[in-house]
Amino acid sequence: MMKLTPNRNATALITSMVMSWALVGGALPPNQPIHLKRDVVVTGSNVMLSDIFAGIDAKTDTIVAAAPTPGKQMNIGSRDLRQIATANELSWRPTSRHALVKVMRESRSIPMKLVRSAIEQAITLDLPGEDVEIEITNRRLRLAIASGHPPTVKVHDLTYDERTHHFTCQISAPADNPAAVRHSVTGRVYEMVKMPVARTHIRPGQTVRKSDITWRRVRASQATYNTISSFDELVNHTARRPLIAGRLLRRTDVQPQQLVIKGDFVTLHFRNAQMSLTTRGIALESGARDDMVRIRNTRSKKVIEGKVISPNAAVLQLPMLAHLN
Question: What domains can be seen in the chain, in order of their start residue?
Answer without folding.
Answer: 3-105 (no CATH), 107-256 (3.90.1210.10), 259-323 (2.30.30.760)
